[in-house]
Amino acid sequence: MSQALIDDDLWTRIEPLLPKRRPRNRQHAGRKPIPDRAVLTGILFVLRSGIPWKMLPKGMGCGSGSTCWRRLVRWQRAGVWKRLHRALLTELRRRGRLDLARAVVDSASLRALRGGKKLDRTLPIAGRGETSCSYRRQRDSGCRAPHVGEPARRDAAAAARGRHSAVARPARPAGESTAEKDRVAFIKKQDKLIAELKEQLILARQRSSSEGFDQRRADNDQRTAGLKAELSRLQEQLDKQQGSIQSQESDFSTLQEQLKDAQERAGLLEKVIQQRDTQIADLEKQLNESLPTGIE
Questions:
Q1: What is the pLDDT of residues 190-226, one digit of tens each?
Q2: For the segment 106-159, what is each residue's pLDDT rounded down to a tens digit?
Q3: What separation in angstroms does the CA of 293 have from each of 244, 282, 287, 288, 290?
Q4: Number of folded domains in the chain?
Q5: Half-sphere exposure of 102 (CA within 13 A, CB side)
Q6: Boundaries of domain holding 52
Q7: pTM for the whole thing?
Q8: Is there a contact between 53 and 68 (Cβ–Cβ < 8 Å)?
Q9: Has residue 60 been placed in a domain?
Q10: Per-chain mean pLDDT for the chain
Q11: Is residue 288 in a domain?
């Protein structure tokens, strides 16, 4: 199963990205941890098959589902999957299998089960209980809400009946409230930003069409630059090796000269030894001649 899900080539790319383990304590070593390749095989098997973590077969040699899940969370916190994604994209770009001439950006809203980053508060576009159409009509017409001014009318009617009434509150001025004005300003700002982005997109398309931009050509240029850099690096290594060879040759030549000098000195010593041998032989001959013949 491990060969079917993770081949050797893919594992050589994934293994350097995984965090290194701490050295085990020999006195309290405990159970030996399951290898990372086997755990990664179990993770891929669960994700591809859709089975629960507890139903992971133990016969695969990948450990239990809890072990695989804990290792998955640990690698996620260490940023292994992001680095692996970038490495695979770089490999596809190097092989020319990634074409970014046309790209689509998509988004989705997913529930964060383990919690997520707290973002800024989103400003409301319209109030609760009213649709965007009614809000726009009310904004454009400049009329106020139906309930504005009703407390003042109720107070006037109560005073006419002779009942005690509180001081009438001043009527709200006709027009929009502060919150509504803020929402309108926010909408106008967003519309202006969208219009600017559309203009920039149109200009970028015109510029790309006029210049004849080609993503494949740019990728080829980048690949060519990388090959040139590699070639220059190899040339530098070759120059260093040639320099070392030349230095070795000069050392060899000096050794040959020293050997010649030693041979010459040895020849001179042999000549001196021969001369001394001849002198010793002559001295022995003279000594024999000088001795009397009758002496034994």
A1: 788 888 888 888 887 777 665 555 666 767 777 888 8
A2: 767 666 666 666 666 666 655 444 444 554 555 555 444 444 444 444 555 454
A3: 75, 19, 12, 9, 9
A4: 1
A5: 0
A6: 2-22+30-95
A7: 0.36
A8: yes
A9: yes
A10: 76
A11: no
